[in-house]
Amino acid sequence: MTTRASRSPRRRTVVALAVVLSVLAAFIVRLVDIQVVNADDHIEDSLSWAFGGSQELYGTRGTIVDADGEQLAGSVLTYDAQLDPSNAGDIRRADASGDSEVVPWPTVAAEIGAITGQSGEEVMRVVDEALAADPDSQYAQLAQGLSTQQYRDLVSLGVPFLYFEPRPDRTYVDGAVAGGLVGYVGSDGVPLAGLELSQNACLEASDGTLSYQKGKDGVIIPGTSLEEPAVDGGTLQLTIDRDLQWYMQQLIAEQAQDMGAQYGSILVVEAESGKIRAAAEYPTVDPNDVEAADVDARYSQLFTAQREPGSTFKALTAATLLDTGAQTPYSTVDAASFETFPNGARVRDAFVHPSYTYTLTGALIDSSNVAVSKFSERVSAQTRYDYLTDFGIGGGVDVGYPSAQTGYIRPVDEWDNQTLYNTSFGQGLVTTMPELAQAYTAITNDGVRVPLSLIESCTLADGTVIEPDLPDPVRVISEETAHQVSTMLENVFLQSTYAEDVAIAGYRMAGKTGTAEKTDGQGGYKAGAYFTTLIGYAPAEDPQYIVLVNLDEPTKVASSSANVPAFQKAMTQVLKNYRVMPSTSAPEELPKFG
């Protein structure tokens, strides 16, 4: 039989145990709250205590790649090395036989300096100066921008008071290939030019932070780290073909130097899509060594320079005349090599000849300024202006390149007597080479102008793909007009003085040259100085690619014939590169004279 006296101690034991368990449970709950539930808050609070520290976590700037995903610009890791001056000194490590030995501080400093490119005395001086400023100093910058190999060599020394901080650096794997397009960043990583600058929203990384607590010896205390992660930049994919770009850069450099030109460029456009497959220039910049390039070569003049287009505009005038029904390819005018018009305007051809009865096709073949001027009288000036703007002249080509220029045509009511005629053959107005190439897409695409593009997409770090918002295609001329103009331009290549030099066996081609006077910067023209242009496409019966070659002030050959060799080689490479099938039909020959 259990008595009251025997039950009482048992009850007290149970109660005591319950109290102990309750207290223990409270401690456990609090511990979970501190170390799990609200761990981040408590770590954050602790970072305000003594010996708190932080480290910046660098996001990696995005890459720039070509149409096939081949890298044009990327980031590599470099390393900044720091010392803990308060702990710098002799170190202990195993010798060659595996026995422990003490290595004196001067020897350690010399070993470090041999890798960083400093003397041992310089390394020791970094420590001495830091301690002189603060006897308890735990930080001193030793070297910046070390390579991965240097980093590994330093780690292998086993120096416990040597620390490293990775930092992304920009590299351009193919040097000057597309250098003017890609652009470059400064030593601080800030974008300064080209697509690096204009597309920074895609490429820019967001840095993060690692915060922690350190003990007096500088060692991070486990469990005190709080990380705000970095976010890498996106991948910018261009429409450029890297291999084709390289070839075109070599070609235009050779041609510009051979012709004694100040500058040269080649633009390759996929006719149906408007995608720019190459935009080569000479001189250009290697983004890895910007200072080696002249200031004018550090950006793309293709997109930032305006020029008079010269006779390449005669095709647009012809298209206007045909599309309005005012003329046909067989319509005629009588034109000598120099004439004074009733309003007092004077127009001269590039070569001396008697009065010829030119067809509209013949005016293009011989590139007669006088004949085209006379043909232009058969439509109103306002009509010609309207068609030029429909072709996109003056509207700009927004491909995402910074500070891109647009062409400019003065309103018709501002045209003087001379401008009335000059605009018909590409003077008295300015355009850009991309605008000109875009205008010709209306001829190669059955009358529909398609917008040029240089950027394929931006793929963000989270996988989101953003494509550029391009303007809608615009019908400029009828399909019949486009075919007629194309046939006329094919006859230009067939019947011109440079026909044999521009020909590519097996392919029908079409195009037009242009020679424009160069401004002297004072409202006039510079004597004997010209911009020369040749724009053409192939195959003529089914245009696949447009190639434009431009030279600034060639001196060996001052006319657009200077552009022919580069055009022929460029188009040959394009047709080969994209495996375009040869033509299977014969061209239609049109008469030059009536």
Automatic annotation (TrEMBL):
Protein localization: Membrane
**Coiled-coil residues:** none
Q: Which residues form the signal peptide?
A: none
Keywords linked to the UniProt accession: Membrane
Which InterPro entries does this chain map to? Beta-lactam/transpept (IPR050515), Beta-lactam/transpept-like (IPR012338), PBP_dimer (IPR005311), PBP_dimer_sf (IPR036138), PCN-bd_Tpept (IPR001460)
Any Pfam family: PBP_dimer
Does the keyword section mention Transport? no
* Penicillin-binding protein dimerisation domain span: 58-188
Penicillin-binding protein transpeptidase domain location: 264-571
PANTHER family hit by this protein: PEPTIDOGLYCAN D,D-TRANSPEPTIDASE, PEPTIDOGLYCAN D,D-TRANSPEPTIDASE FTSI
Tell me which family the UniProt entry assigns to this protein.
Answer: Belongs to the transpeptidase family.
**Name of the protein described by the UniProt record:** Penicillin-binding protein 2
